[in-house]
Amino acid sequence: MDPYVRLGVTPDAPFDQVKEARDARIAEIGDDDPLARSRIEAAYDAVLMDRLKERQQGRVSTAARSASQREQVAPPAERISLPSLPRLAPLPLVRNAARPSFALPRLELATGRERWFPLVAIGGLLVFLLLPGTDPGLPLALGSLAALVNLQRRHGRFLQAVLTTLALLVAGLLVGAALVALLGSQLDALPLARLQVESLPALLFLLVGALLLA
After folding, report:
1. Average pLDDT over every residue of 193-209
2. Per-residue b or e along 44-80, where b marks 16 or more CB atoms closer than 10 Å to that residue's CB
3. In this predicted structure, what is the pLDDT of residue 104?
4. CA torsion 10→16→22→28, rounded to 10°?
5. What are phi and psi of 30, to 5 degrees?
6. Using H for helix, E for strand and C for coil, what is the string for 69-110?
7. Quick one: pLDDT at residue 19?
8. What pLDDT digit, counting tens, does each position of 27-47 carry?
9. Rounded distance, CA 31 to CA 36, Å?
10. DSSP per residue, 96-164
């Protein structure tokens, strides 16, 4: 019987597989049938002799040829695992847009302290301006300061309060200059000086603006 068939291997089986087949057959037979064990050993020796003859004759066995072909197959290239990039924390959502640094004022009558403060401060300066011989520079400066403080309380933005106060002061002075030019020679009949008449609209503008602009 062909030794390869007796061992249950093919002629191109590697040596390790032949040895494992011999051990498996002997384990199946056990110690009860020494004749069968000797046949397995003889088949194993025959396979070894056959392989040895092939080597001595310079022939490459089928098993060696198969092993050589497997060695020539290039192993799959190892995948280079790149370190994962750190995840950035999500940006917080802006739920409330920032208030602009400047917005057009709206008309809204002041209440509480923002109402009585300009009435007392600028109203008192108006009375002081109407006194004969009063220099209008001081009432205008104090009136502008009072309007600035009140507008800043209402707006909550200092720069806008400053710009609004300057606009009210300039507009009042322009109206005062136009009033003086309109009265002309009639100013001599008034108990007020020219600068007092010219400054009067400016204080009124500051008072109205401090009360109505928000």
Report:
1. 89
2. beebeeebeeeeeeeeebebbeeeeeeeeeeeeeeee
3. 75
4. -100
5. 80, -160
6. HHHHCCCCCCCCCCCCCCCCCCCCCCCCCCCCCCCCCCECCC
7. 92
8. 988 888 888 889 999 989 998
9. 10
10. SPPPPS-----B----THHHHHHHHHHHHHHHHHTSTT--THHHHHHHHHHHHHHHHHHHS-HHHHHHH
* Residue 62 confidence (pLDDT) above 50: yes
Top pLDDT among 80 and 34 is at: 34
Task: Extract the tokens encoding 54.
Answer: 């092939």
Q: Which residue has the tokens 């847009």?
A: 97
Residue listed under structure tokens 């695992």: 81
Reading the block at residue 114, the tokens are: 């923002």
